[in-house]
Structures are given as structure tokens and as C-alpha cells.
């Protein structure tokens, strides 16, 4: 189109000379005048229609200048593949040249450095808009897939958890609304009869749900990491899992009981990842099943032995992960009625104050209190630093201590310094005060707090930027 003389004047036609030039470019050396005349009329007719439709796109786009995308859309309208390479948001200047009785318009080609072209990464074309189908309903039943809303929302699950009588009354009112209104003795008798009626909740799963439950549980505790990742992602994102939630929680609780006795660290980690995925699912409400989840998570935090070889296995990572989970549960479901946070805090505090507590249990209690917040660290850990430090030193200095105990003592010492440093750095460090209150941890804590209070060079630069 750049080599033609077409203008907005609809009476203009493409000259035969322009067609001969185009024919020479594509390899046709000699084009007869009769053939050029026929081609000129046909191409002019088609170009007029393409330009007219392109101007329609321009008008609907509320623009006063025709752009290459308008021409491309016009070509697509006629099922013609658009010309790639000329779709530019900027104006493309055409240069004019004449000579030998010919007049041409052309675009100036820029010289490119091949090294820049080779080294630059290929630009990915954006994906076009597409339409994907899914089942809205099958035989009148809405399937539980991410595209469909969940059958029971999280608010309804919460209402059922807090007040199950309301759900029963709702069902009774629905039944009465479909029947005849009852009055007199019959109405009083019905009220008397329904006083001791308890909710009949059926927990039968369909064949598809049973298959899903089987596949999910096998994948979560199986050896295939790819399948496990997909299963955990399904638990954290898929709606409509509330019907299987009781069985999932029971599976986790029973799995923790068995594998703690067998000291199977890997399966305990997999089960805690299941708890985290269920907790991350925005369509599930877990308060009805906290009586199974909280003991399982606390077991992974406070158990004295979680692996067969505690001196070699990193069971500390499991205790840290479970502590983060219990902190999230406490913050999400704590109320003035259940006092979950208070009860969990008391459990951790009792584990620290108990002289017979094993070192891994003390580590778990420290990590659990640290995840619950700095205020609890100040109230429950700071007063016990001296006694904890003396117990750690006793294990480290005793030659008869096992390798597992020495590793646990070192872990507790490092954890105390890590946990206490953010709490103590708000006050001016005093080495004499630290020696009186913190025992053998005084000097490491003093060094850590002093370092934390002194902004580093990189930290200062980062704060200014």
C-alpha cells in the first residue's frame, strides 16, 4: 500500500506503473498493460473496502488518525491474515522518491547491529483473549470446581460452627413453609416434640469425593514430590472441600499419632504441610475441627523425639514450621470464649518451667512463644533466661551428655539469642545487668544487642534509598 497512489479520494485508482514495479519486486519481469489494467481495477475495489472498514474502526475508536491496527482489523474482518511488522503505535514516516517517470513512497530501513540482536532476549508475544468452557451443572448438581462458587460459603460454615441450632431451625421453617400452618394443640405438641431433636448431619461422600480423598491423601504422604505439590495446591485453592474436611482432619490427627510413635519425621512434615494448605484455603472454616488440629500441631512442636536419629535429622525445622502454624491458628480463631491463645501460651510456659522437660521440648516451647509475639517473650522467656542458660551450660560442659543433647543445647542457646535480641535492643545494653540476670548468655546477648542497635552501612544506604 505504501507504493500506491491511493488517497482518501475514492475516485483514485492504482496506476499500472505501480503494479509493474510491484511485479518486478516479486519476480515478474514483464507485466502486460491489459493484465495491469484488470489487476488495477480489482485491487482498487478491494482496497477501497478495506480502507472503508479501517476508517470505521478508527471512528469507533474515537480517533482522527488511521493507525496500522485499524487496517489489520479490517483485514481480519475479510479473513485475510494481517501484515505483521507494521503494527506500530508510533507514526511511520514514508519518504517520497521520484525518477525515470516514476513516483514511489517508501520507509527508510534502519541499520541494526547483529550483536545487539543476538544478545537481546526474544520478546514474547502476549497471549490473546480466549474462551474456556466448564460445567456449570451436571444433572442439576453444581460441581465443586474453582470456576463455580462453593456450595457452602465460609460465613455459612462459621454460622453453623458457632450456632448449629440455627441451621436446624432453618430446616424446620423450610418444612413448615411448604406445608399447612399449624395452630392450637398440634402446634404446641410439635414444639414439645422438637425440644430434644438434634441435628441429623449425614456425612456420606459421593464416589467422586471418595476418589478425590483417596488420591489427595496418598499424594500428600507419598514419595512423589510433584504429586504432593499438586495435591497441596488443590487443598489450598479448591472450593467445596468442606464435606471432606472432617475426614481430612481425622486423617491428619491419626497420622500424627502414629508417626510420632514411629519417629517418622518425613511424614510428620507432610502432615503439617496439609494443615497449612487447609488453613490457606479461603473457602474453609476450621474452627469446628481445631480440637483435632491443635493437638496434632502442638505434638510436632513439643514432642521429645520426632525422628529416629535426632542427632542427624533436622527436626528443628519441623518445630519451627509447626510453631508458625499454631501462631496463625491462634491469631485467626482466638476469642474471649475459647481463649485459644491463652491456653496455648500456658502450655508453652508450663513446658519451660517443668524441670523434667526434655531439651527438644524446651526448644519447641521457646519457638512457639516467639511466634506468638514479642510481648509473650518478654513475659515468659526473659524471667527464665538464667535458669535456661544454666541448664544449657550443664549439658554442654558434661562429658557424659549425648551428642543429641549437646546439639539440642546449642540450638536452644542460638534460639534464645535470636529471640531475645529484638526484645532487648529497645533498651540500652548494660553488661553488668546482663551478667546478673542472664548468666552465661550475658556476653553473647550483649554482643548481639549492640550489633542490632548499630545500623550497618548497607542498612543505612537502604534506608536512604
UniProtKB/TrEMBL annotation:
Keyword flag Chloroplast: no
Top-level taxon in the UniProt lineage: Eukaryota
One GO cellular component term noted in the UniProt record for this chain: SAGA complex
Keywords recorded for this protein, A-Z: Nucleus, Transcription, Transcription regulation
Compartmental location: Nucleus
Stored SMART domains: TAF (SM00803)
Alphabetized InterPro entries for the sequence: ARM-type_fold, Histone-fold, TAF6, TAF6_C, TAF6_C_sf, TAF_TATA-bd_Histone-like_dom
Single GO term (MF): RNA polymerase II general transcription initiation factor activity
Domain TATA box binding protein associated factor (TAF) histone-like fold, chain residue ranges per copy: 13-75
Pfam families: TAF, TAF6_C
GO biological-process terms attached to the record: RNA polymerase II preinitiation complex assembly
Family: Belongs to the TAF6 family.
Name the UniProt record assigns to this protein: Transcription initiation factor TFIID subunit 6
Highest classification ranks of the organism: Eukaryota, Metazoa, Ecdysozoa, Arthropoda, Hexapoda
Amino acid at each position: 500500500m505504501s507504493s500506491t497512489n491511493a488517497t482518501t479520494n475514492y475516485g483514485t485508482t492504482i496506476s499500472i506503473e505501480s503494479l509493474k514495479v510491484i511485479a518486478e519486486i516479486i519476480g515478474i519481469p514483464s507485466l502486460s498493460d491489459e493484465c495491469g489494467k484488470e489487476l488495477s481495477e480489482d485491487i482498487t475495489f478491494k482496497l477501497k473496502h478495506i480502507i472503508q472498514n479501517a476508517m470505521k474502526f478508527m471512528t469507533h475508536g474515537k480517533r482522527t488518525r488511521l493507525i496500522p491496527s485499524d487496517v489489520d482489523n479490517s483485514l481480519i474482518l475479510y479473513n485475510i491474515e494481517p501484515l505483521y511488522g507494521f503494527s506500530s503505535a508510533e507514526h511511520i514516516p514514508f519518504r517520497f522518491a521520484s525518477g525515470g517517470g516514476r513516483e514511489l513512497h517508501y520507509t527508510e530501513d534502519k541499520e541494526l547491529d547483529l550483536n545487539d540482536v543476538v544478545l537481546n532476549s526474544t520478546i514474547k508475544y502476549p497471549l490473546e483473549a480466549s474462551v474456556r468452557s466448564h460445567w456449570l451443572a451436571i444433572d442439576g448438581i453444581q460441581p465443586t470446581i474453582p470456576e463455580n462458587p462453593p456450595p457452602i460459603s465460609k460465613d455459612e460454615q462459621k454460622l453453623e460452627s458457632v450456632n448449629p441450632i440455627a441451621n436446624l431451625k432453618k430446616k424446620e421453617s423450610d418444612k413448615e413453609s411448604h406445608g399447612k400452618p399449624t395452630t392450637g394443640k398440634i402446634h404446641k405438641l410439635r414444639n414439645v416434640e422438637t425440644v430434644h431433636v438434634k441435628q441429623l448431619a449425614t456425612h456420606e461422600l459421593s464416589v467422586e469425593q471418595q476418589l478425590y480423598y483417596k488420591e489427595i491423601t496418598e499424594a500428600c504422604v507419598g514419595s512423589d514430590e510433584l504429586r504432593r505439590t499438586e495435591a497441596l495446591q488443590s487443598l489450598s485453592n479448591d472450593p467445596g472441600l468442606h464435606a471432606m474436611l472432617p475426614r481430612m482432619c481425622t486423617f491428619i490427627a491419626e497420622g500424627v499419632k502414629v508417626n510420632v510413635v514411629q519417629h517418622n519425621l518425613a511424614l510428620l512434615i507432610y502432615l503439617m504441610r496439609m494443615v497449612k494448605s487447609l488453613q490457606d484455603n479461603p473457602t474453609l472454616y476450621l474452627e469446628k475441627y481445631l480440637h483435632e488440629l491443635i493437638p496434632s500441631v502442638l505434638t510436632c512442636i513439643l514432642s521429645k523425639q520426632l525422628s529416629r536419629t535426632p542427632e542427624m535429622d533436622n527436626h528443628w525445622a519441623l518445630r519451627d514450621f509447626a510453631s508458625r502454624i499454631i501462631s496463625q491458628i491462634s491469631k485467626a480463631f482466638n476469642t474471649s470464649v475459647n481463649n485459644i491463645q491463652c491456653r496455648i501460651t500456658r502450655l508453652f510456659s508450663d513446658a519451660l518451667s517443668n524441670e523434667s522437660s526434655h531439651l527438644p521440648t524446651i526448644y519447641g516451647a521457646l519457638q512457639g512463644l516467639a511466634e506468638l509475639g514479642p510481648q509473650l517473650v518478654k513475659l515468659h522467656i526473659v524471667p527464665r533466661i538464667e535458669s535456661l542458660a544454666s541448664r544449657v551450660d550443664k549439658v554442654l560442659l558434661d562429658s557424659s551428655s549425648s551428642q543429641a543433647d549437646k546439639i539440642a543445647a546449642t540450638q536452644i542457646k542460638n534460639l534464645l539469642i535470636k529471640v531475645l535480641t529484638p526484645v532487648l535492643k529497645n533498651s540500652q545494653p548494660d553488661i553488668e545487668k546482663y551478667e546478673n540476670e542472664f548468666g552465661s548468655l550475658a556476653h553473647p546477648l550483649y554482643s548481639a544487642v549492640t550489633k542490632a542497635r548499630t545500623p550497618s552501612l548497607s542498612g543505612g544506604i537502604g534506608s536512604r534509598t
